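User: Could you walk me through two proteins back to back? I'd like the raw sequence and the structure tokens for each, with a short line separating them so I can tell where one ends and the next begins.

Assistant: Of course. Protein one, sequence then structure:
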Amino acid sequence: MSTGSRRKNSRDVIASAARRLFTERGYAGTTVRDIAGEASVDPSLVIRHFVSKEQLFLDVLGLTADHALPTDGPLETLGPRLIRHMLDPEEDVRGAFLALVRASDAAGVGSRLRQAHDELFVAPLADRLEGEDAALRARLAAALVGGLLYSLWIVGDEDLRSTEPEVLVDRYGALLQELLTPTR
């Protein structure tokens, strides 16, 4: 195995371990040593690959441009598609959302979370919307989606959690769509 392959492999193993631990224990409850132990590597290798625990957290939980929301495709159907993406178990939005909420008061993470919110959710939506209130509607859309995630995974609303995902996509997606392409 080449040196480049070993480096990429160790980076991937560290990222996987970090994602799992941050999701299970939160930011404060996870140390670089914990991540290194889970990945079976030396803690210095974690820092070599990711610079800091904070940067590792941000990278593995999707707060980079590589993890922007899928805002492409027809604007007329974007609301339901975004809700479907948020509920897709393959995307692990739940784990990332919970870890981010738990870490939002950690030094540096809260401000980066706000920046990512603006860059990865609000700005791409605002760029797609028309009208002088496009920026406001993009922020309201972000708040609407955040409200669903809060109800599902922070409050643990059992009625919502037991609702078929496609029902949530249809109904909540329609609410979101009204913000994106208002009929009035």
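----
Protein two, same layout:
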Amino acid sequence: MTMVERVAVGLVGAGPWASQVHAPVFATGPETRLTAVWARRPEAARELAEPYGAQACAGFDELLDRCEAVVFAIAPEAQPALAERAARAGKAVLLEKPIAGDVDTARRLADVIGAAGVGSMVALSARYAPRVRDFLVHLAGAETAWRGGRLACVTDAFLDGPFAASPWRQTRGAILDVGPHAFDLMSVALGDIVDMRADSPGAGWTAVQLVHAGGAVSQLVLCCAAEAGHRYDVELYGSAGTAALDLSTAIDGAAFAVLRAEFASLVRDGGEHVCDVRRGLYLQEVIARAEQQLAAAR
């Protein structure tokens, strides 16, 4: 793409993820330019927009008028209504995960985007990381039957740092925040999730056992309130050995460069993306099943 052809992107939200990732990624990339920012707090929108020469918009409709595509970095409950408006206005959308606060709302969002005929992607950061993609290709091409797996995502993100004050993360925990990434990677590696058992001993810890189509099983350990022992990794077990990846180092700046390029291509060329809103809906359904089990166990 030439500079003239760069996709004009509007950013909704001015919180930590918007300021640390989305704004610099879409403002400085060769495929896109950041033209507008809108947030619930006008002063936060101005503070984020100014360094990139973007317009801080007084309302969401003004943002839609100033962009070709919309990137969201807001809470799950707030995202669907605005994303539906963007889709109906003909704008491609990059959605935050999870795509909604509940399954019914996620399903309606997917239907609206489908009816509007616009492109969609979900910011499942691992799926855009080149090393993760190579790992998944290796798993698919290996001459072994993968029968089991484990994924651990153990961090202190809810104790300190920019996400510690996030109300929806504190209320619904790691299952809603990092759960989409974990369920997505395991279902790609081992097949669709057909059964599960979710438990929580408290203190922010969640353990999930999954059964996949074809009979493979996997285990997830999720916690964003761990004071020590931080790790983010995945390992698969098969008839001819194991395959492992340290996700904490594999997901880096290259992932967001790929995300930006593929989103720009979706806007310009159309088509569908493997991580589209329907993928987001699938993950929302899996999350809902896990949350129901966790609620029943309390």
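The mean pLDDT is 95.

Let me know if you want the two compared in more detail.
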